[in-house]
Design brief:
The protein starts with a strand and ends with a strand. A four-stranded parallel β-sheet has the order 1-4-7-10, with helices on one face. The protein has a four-stranded mixed β-sheet with strand order 2-5-8-9. The protein has a two-stranded parallel ribbon with strand order 3-6. By secondary structure, it is α/β, with parallel strands linked by helices. The longest helix is centred in the last third of the chain and has 8 residues. It has one domain.
């Protein structure tokens, strides 16, 4: 279970977020850079629940993406489900969540739940 990710290391409202970019570090799962880093990874049977930025950030060519299988995706009303990073330059809003998860990420047996 990956719950409420990307909200910083502290609950302090004045938390100084200087160690990274808020967009890229606010994700539940981030895959980045070269294919060797991500080779052979399977993301299976996880619950991704309410990330500050995206539930999944994939910033490499699709052929190097990990395999997604049987995960549960739950994102807030204004949140981003998928962030495809600088190589794609797009974010997938919640209204597009089912299509993104099942067709683009190819997680055919995923559960996509609206928390509202």
């Amino acid at each position: 279970m990956i719950l409420y990710s990307g909200y910083g290391w502290s609950c302090d409202k004045d938390y100084d977020f200087t160690w990274g970019d808020k967009v890229y570090n606010g994700n539940a799962i981030t895959f980045w850079d070269t294919p060797n880093i991500n080779k052979g990874i399977i993301v299976k049977n996880n619950i991704l629940y309410l990330a500050k930025s995206g539930l999944v950030h994939l910033s490499m060519d699709k052929k190097y993406w990990p395999i997604f299988e049987g995960n549960t995706y739950i994102q807030n009303r204004y949140g981003i489900v998928g962030f495809l990073g600088i190589k794609y330059g797009t974010s997938i809003k919640r209204s597009e969540m089912i299509n993104f998860v099942k067709e683009v990420m190819e997680d055919k047996i995923a559960k996509v739940i609206d928390p509202n």
